[in-house]
Amino acid sequence: MELKSPDDTSMRRSVFITDMNKSGVDPEISDKINEYFSQLQDHVGKLDTHIDNVLHKHENDFLNAFKCQMFTLYTQLRELKKKTDENEVKLRRDEQLNKLQASLDWFREEAVHLGETTQFYKKEADKWKAKADSLEDDRKFLEDQLRCAKKRIKDLQEGRSQENTLENSSRISRPMTSSGQGSQKFIPTTKSGLLIMELLQKHPMKDGEFFFELEKYLNNIENAYHEALKKAKFSLSYEKKKHFNVSAQQTSVYFEKSEMENLFLECVDEVRKDVLKRRTQNMFAQKYTKRAASSHRNEKNPLTSSDKRKILELLVSNEQILILLYEKLFPHKAVNYNLFAKNEDGSQEPLPSIDELIKQVPTRLGAKTSTPQKARIFGYT
């Protein structure tokens, strides 16, 4: 805005007054006009300052409003950044939880697999241990038999050497008998003959035929003794083989799973499937909560009391289990049914039905028990 100088203003004022004097205006009016003119001049002089003050005030207000707006934007940006950081931390934590959950599932499966493998190898180790014990007993028995056989062979070899010595000596020292003599000199060829020779030396006799007959008789007795000994050894080896086969069969039967054990394991597996399904559903329902992680960490026993009751219900609902319970509860009635009898061909005889067994259950005061009540007694429908 262009400002006027004081000289220009005074000149205009003088020109204005001169024009008023020329026009012949009243002096009073002229004084008022001059007064008003001076006031207008003052207001015009102050107008620039007032405008500058207003502009400066507006500028300050604008700067204050701009500062407030920028501070608001800065606060919002800082909150958004904080939320972004929190969301990023949550995403990382969720990813880490997912990885840990996958690792936990893998380790759980590996633990179950290793547990089953450990049980299998434990049973195999027990089986081989039992076989080793049986073989150790057989080894000790065979060592004793071998020791006895070696001793017997040694005795036989000594006897054989003595017999060979006696035979050689008899060939050398046997005299030639003359044609006029009716008897021959006795020369022993066996152990019995050697004993007879000792008796002959103690009690000399001239007739040797008696000693030959006596030696023959004793030799026959010795041969019969050897034959009996061979038969006894053969029967002993046969009984030993039979005992070994029976012990092997008993060992194999001991380590084979019985039918009742398989039934119990099937019931446990069925309930375990339901437990795993329930745990999977709970895990997916509570996946993004800390409560799921804490409850999953603190769960020590996966089988609850209801699961155990369900195992018992499945086990008791089997017909064979009911028959076995009937046999244990009422032995005086179950003796009429041979539950484990076999036919001549070795096959299992058919088991009696549940209704036949229920008829044998004594009722109180002769009351008639209906079929649903009987079913409730044994826990089946």
UniProtKB/TrEMBL annotation:
Top-level division of the source organism's lineage: Eukaryota
Record protein name field: Uncharacterized protein
Region (Disordered): 157-184
Comp. bias (Polar residues): 162-184
